[in-house]
Write a structure and sequence with these properties.
There is one protein chain. By secondary structure, the chain is of the alpha+beta class. It has a single domain, classed as 7,8-Dihydro-6-hydroxymethylpterin-pyrophosphokinase HPPK (Alpha-Beta Plaits), CATH 3.30.70.560. It has 4 helices and 10 strands. The radius of gyration is 15 Å and the shape is globular. The structure holds 7,8-dihydro-7,7-dimethyl-6-hydroxypterin (ROI). The site of 7,8-dihydro-7,7-dimethyl-6-hydroxypterin has 11 residues, from strand 4.
C-alpha cells in the first residue's frame, strides 16, 4: 500500500448493489470515488456475491471494500459518497430494501464517530460477512476500534453464502 500524506486519514468504504447490473454499479462507483477531490484509492477488493441480509425477497448483492487516503473530514466524505449514490439512481425507499448503490464509511482511521448521520465503525460491521471478508482481503492486519482484530471477528462470522466473483 502507498504511504499516506501526513494529514491524510486511511478510510475504508463498503460498496454494495443488487439492482441494475450490480458489478457495473460497483466499477462505476469506484471510478467516481477515485474522482472525488482529496480522495485517493489505495486498494480495492475483489467483488463478492452475497445473499441479501434482511428481507429475502430481493436479488443477491455484489459487495466490495475500498481503502482510500483522504484529507476530507468524515461528513465531507459522507456527502461525497451520498452524491455518488444519488448519481447512481439510489432511491431511499424501504429500509433494508433493494438498492442500486450503497456506499458506507466503514472505518475512518481509528476514530469512533457517533453523529446523527454517521456511525463509525459502521454499526453492523461485525455481523456482515460481505464486509469482513473483502476487508480482510485488503487489510488482513486490521484492528477495528472497540471491536477487536479483524481476523478474530472473521472467525466468528459465518460465510453466509458469500462467494468471490471472477475478476
Ligand atoms: N445484504 C447484502 N448481502 N449486501 C449488502 O450490501 C446489503 N446492504 C444492505 C442490507 C439491506 C442490510 N442487506 C445487504 O443495506
Amino acid at each position: 500500500m502507498q504511504s499516506l500524506s501526513s494529514d491524510a486519514v486511511l478510510a475504508y468504504i463498503g460498496l454494495g448493489s443488487n439492482l441494475q447490473n450490480p458489478s457495473q454499479q460497483l466499477h462505476s462507483a469506484r471510478t467516481a470515488i477515485t474522482a472525488l477531490a482529496y480522495v485517493k484509492e489505495l486498494a480495492f477488493s475483489c467483488l463478492y456475491q452475497s445473499l441479501p441480509m434482511g428481507p429475502q425477497d430481493q436479488p443477491d448483492y455484489v459487495n466490495a471494500v475500498m481503502a482510500v487516503a483522504t484529507t476530507l473530514a468524515p461528513l465531507e466524505l459522507l456527502r461525497g459518497l451520498q452524491g455518488i449514490e444519488n448519481n447512481h439512481g439510489r432511491i431511499r425507499g424501504q429500509r433494508w430494501g433493494a438498492r442500486t448503490l450503497d456506499l458506507d464509511i466503514l472505518l475512518y482511521g481509528d476514530n469512533s464517530i457517533a453523529l446523527p448521520d454517521l456511525i463509525v465503525p459502521h454499526s453492523g460491521i461485525t455481523e456482515r460477512a460481505f464486509v469482513l471478508y473483502p476487508l480482510y482481503e485488503i487489510a488482513p492486519q486490521l484492528t477495528i476500534p472497540n471491536k477487536g482484530k479483524l481476523i478474530d471477528l472473521l472467525a466468528n462470522c459465518p460465510l453466509a453464502g458469500l462467494k468471490k466473483l471472477d475478476a
